[in-house]
Amino acid sequence: MNKTTFALFLTLLACSALFAQNNSPITSGRTYPSFTPEAQPVRNGNEPIASPDATGDTIWSEDFAGGLPAGWKSVDLTANDFKWKYTTDPVVHCTYTNITFQSSTSDNGFMLLFGDKYNSDASCTNTISGTFMDAFIQTPAIDLSGYTSLQLNFQQAFRYCCSSIYSHLSVFVSNDSINWTEFDVTDGIGANVASSIPVYKSINITAVAANQPKVFFRFHQYGAAHYYWCMDDIAITEAPHDDLRLLEGKFNINGSDNIYTHIPMQQAAGYAMNFSGHVYNYGNKTQTGAILNVQVKKDSGSVVYNESTSPVTIPYLTYDTLPLAVAYPISTTGNCIEMGDYKILFAVSQNETDEVPENNADTLNYTLTDSVYAKDHGVPYGKVAPKDFTCCTHDNAQIASVFTPVVADTATSISVFISGSSSPSGITLIMHLYPFTGSPAHVAPVPIASSAVHDLTSLELNKWLTLPFMSAARLMKDTSYLASIQIKGVDKGYNVYFGKDEAKAADSTVFVYNNSSWYFINEQPMIRLNTNGSGCVDRCPTLQLTSTPDSCGTFRGSVNANVTGGFGPFHYQWSNGATTKHAQAEAGINTVTVTDLGGSCMLIDSVMVGGYPDTLDLGDDIKVCPDNINPVILDAGPGYTSYTWSTGSTTQTETIQALGSYSVMVTNAVGCAYRDTMVMKSSGPELGPDTTICLADSILLDAGPGYTSYLWSTGATTQAIYTVHDKNLYIVNATDSNGCATSDSILVDQIPSYIYGTIWTSDGKPLMYSNIDLFIMDSDTNVYKLDSTVTDSLGKYRIPLPPFTQVWFRAFPDSARYPLEMPTYYDDTTLVIGNSSDIFTTGCTPRNISYYTIHGKNPGGSKRIGGYVTEGTNKHATTPTPVAGLALILKDKNNKKIGYQITDANGHFSFGNLVTDTYVIWADRWRIPNDNPPVVDLKTSDLNNLEFKLHKTWLELVTVTSTVKSDLPEGEDVQLYPVPSDGRIVISNGSGLPETGRLRVYDVTGRQVYDQAFVTRQPIDLSALPAGYYTASIILGDRVITRRMVMHKLADVRK
Question: From CA 106, how far away is CA 103, in angstroms rounded?
Answer without folding.
Answer: 5
